[in-house]
Design brief:
By secondary structure, the protein is α/β, with parallel strands linked by helices. Helix content is 37%, strand content 14%. It folds into two domains: 167 residues, 3-Layer(aba) Sandwich (Rossmann fold); 165 residues, Rossmann fold (3-Layer(aba) Sandwich), CATH 3.40.50.
């Protein structure tokens, strides 16, 4: 059964003696020529996303993944078969409706599931060899964990370059560099395929990717920093990300006005929502008189960014699906060369071991957005 630890229980368990393995059962469905049994066992030293050197006597066997946006790290970890036996505790990865971890972690039902605001005591209770966090969690959770002697490895994952680098980091930590190389090749090959298809077009439409934030009041439209993966997705898909000029961008989402959106007057608009159906927002925009002067609205080029368990625009492994889909919209003539359905099925088979039947049962019913 799932275990949710209270702070008091966690403190009590944290005081207990030696660690024992918290997982058992079969390995995950991650597709790989390597296996958990053949993983490397010697000393491991990695340089994490903050440039810190972290060393282990052997690949960590009790891993905790927690903190904000933890699902991005979880979904990278479970591309490796070793994660199934080594991740002993993780926070809830649910963003909109679903959590992907139960699909790929065969031991999920016996794992410790931490609350969204898990603190040091809950993490310590899991007796980790290592804790994986996003860089944004360093001050709130990482440093307090380091202060009590827990080894923390930080991940960024915000750009394709970071993805390549940090897949390699994960491969070292899980003792499977061969699998890391397979995965790096998959992402680089698919990116090259998309760029090659998009490069055949003689035009580069002006593209605006907007995040519609419904969690804060009032609701707002927002654009990403220039170094986030949304920008490279648009560029590699053959478009021009108009929001990188005209406003001062911060290190997180920047709210923009309708006046600024009108000044950009993009040829195409892509709507992201993380906590509701983006198609609803698209329908609202198309019916709003204030938007009717935009070129994108006049040409019916306002689209709901797709997703399944998570939106495909994010620095989760699904960004490669988002890139592929985006290219078919930015340049519709690429659609035949970049079959989104086939790409998605291959993604889940190669990265998570889901065959076509499993895909039809576990992924396809949960797709959203403007998909074929």
């Amino acid at each position: 059964m799932l275990v949710a630890l209270s702070a008091a229980t966690a403190l009590l368990l944290g005081a207990c003696g030696g660690a024992s393995s918290g997982t058992s059962g079969t390995s995950s469905g991650s597709a790989s020529g390597s296996s958990a049994a053949s993983a490397a066992t010697g000393p491991v030293t990695v340089t994490d996303a903050l440039g810190r050197t972290v060393s282990f006597a052997a690949p960590p066997k009790r891993i905790v993944i927690t903190g904000k946006a933890l699902f991005m790290i979880t979904d990278v970890a479970f591309m490796f078969p070793e994660a199934d036996q080594r991740v002993v505790a993780l926070g809830s990865g649910k963003q909109y409706k679903l959590d992907f971890a139960p699909i790929v972690d065969s031991n999920y039902s016996s794992a410790t599931v931490l609350g969204k605001t898990a603190g040091v005591d809950q993490v310590v209770a899991a007796k980790p060899d290592a804790v994986f966090l996003k860089t944004s969690a360093q001050s709130t959770l990482g440093k307090p964990l380091e202060a009590v002697g827990i080894k923390v490895v930080y991940f960024d994952l915000e750009t394709p370059q970071a993805y390549q680098r940090e897949i390699g980091t994960m491969g070292k930590l899980l003792g499977d560099p061969a699998r890391a190389q397979e995965l790096q090749s998959y992402f680089s090959d698919q990116t090259a395929k998309v760029k090659a298809a998009a490069s055949k077009s003689g035009t580069r439409p002006k593209v605006l990717v907007l995040y519609y934030d419904t969690k804060n009041s009032p609701v707002s439209f927002n654009v990403s920093p220039a170094d986030w993966i949304n920008v490279s997705e648009v560029q590699d898909a053959g478009g021009v990300p108009v929001w990188t000029s005209g406003v001062k961008l911060g290190n997180s989402w920047t709210t923009v006005s309708l006046e600024q959106i009108a000044a950009w007057n993009p040829d195409q608009v892509y709507l992201i929502t993380y906590f509701s159906d983006p198609k609803t927002v698209v329908d609202t925009i198309k019916a709003d008189a204030r938007w009717k002067g935009l070129t994108a609205v006049q040409h019916n080029a306002v689209y709901a960014f797709p997703g399944d368990y998570y939106s495909w625009d994010q620095p989760d492994p699904r960004w490669i699906l988002g890139l592929t889909w985006l290219a078919t919209k930015v340049h519709p003539e690429t659609a035949s060369a970049l079959d989104v359905d086939a790409t998605s099925r291959t993604f889940y088979q190669k990265l998570y071991g889901l065959d076509s039947t499993s895909y039809d049962q576990k992924v396809k019913p949960n797709l959203w957005g403007d998909l074929p």
